[in-house]
Amino acid sequence: MEALAELERVQTRILHRISDLELSHLPQHFSHSLSLQSSAAAGPNADADADASTTTEGRLSAILLANSVRDFSFKRVPSDYYEWTLEARRDILGAASIHHLCKSIVLVNTQAPPNVTDCSDRNYSKYYVVVVQYTARFNAETVKNFLYALNDGKISKKKFNMRLAPEEMSAKLTGYEHNGVTCIGMKTDIPVILDEAITKLNPDFFWLGGGEIDLKLGIRTSEFINYVKPFIVNCSGS
């Protein structure tokens, strides 16, 4: 099963690269014209094809490709996926190990002063998204210490208290429901913290939420970092 999943990822990457090469050799006005002609020629199926670009997978794929991310893959999973063991989840995704299975959680600083209400200052934001492994034990205190140091100790430690955001708040900020949260294409531009342990995984390709409960996204770690530009923090233990 792992071999088949890897073959699927390779095929997806090849198709993305072929598409990029084809488009790069077309003048911009010709490419747009071709798109319109193709849509008209497709007849009644044109709307179905156009709808693909409005799906979560289509929208996130477009965002990733527009930001030079090429090595990624989406995978649909059964509705009872979260009732499975980590080993079973690993197998259906074709992940290299259970340690390559990650999640995105939204944190809120409950002690931020009244004037800090949004994410306009990524060094001292009201909210952060943390990407951490399922096999790791998240440590909010390390995030607090990191942010305190990031601000050169100019903000009292009493003004940092990172807690898991309620599901309703997380959904409002990200646009994604519980178990579907991803830090790609969020409704709010929330600063991202990537657990350092994920950067040490081999191979450097991890899985996280894909915007829907039954949609998962696999992505090359280096490309994720280049695009998302997360803070990399040692914020977990095994």
UniProtKB/TrEMBL annotation:
Pfam families: tRNA_edit. Residues 98-224 form the YbaK/aminoacyl-tRNA synthetase-associated domain. InterPro entries: YbaK/aa-tRNA-synt-asso_dom_sf, YbaK/aa-tRNA-synth-assoc-dom. GO terms for molecular function: aminoacyl-tRNA deacylase activity. It comes from the Eukaryota. Transmembrane segments: none annotated. This is YbaK/aminoacyl-tRNA synthetase-associated domain-containing protein.
